[in-house]
Specification:
mainly beta; three-stranded antiparallel β-sheet; 0% helix
Length: 75
């Protein structure tokens, strides 16, 4: 079963010090977060951004970090 990640938060203190990344969020000079994917082969979370229909890899976090994942509940 494939699941869509809607938001991830990086950091051990979710409420005060974590960085939050969500689909559709505006980042990095007019880009928008288009995909958040989990890669099984290296157990990492990858964030991709889009601008003018060009999708680029932006950030990668390994699973050794404190990560909170929110899934999209609309199927």
């Amino acid at each position: 079963m494939s699941t869509v990640i809607r938001k991830i938060s990086i950091g051990s203190d979710y409420k005060n010090d974590a960085m939050h990344y969500a689909l559709g969020q505006q980042v990095y000079g007019g880009h928008e977060i288009s995909h958040i994917l989990f890669e099984d082969d290296d157990a990492s979370y990858n964030i991709f951004i889009k601008k003018n229909n060009e999708v680029l890899p932006w950030k990668k976090f390994n699973s050794n970090m404190a990560i909170s994942v929110e899934y999209d509940l609309e199927y």
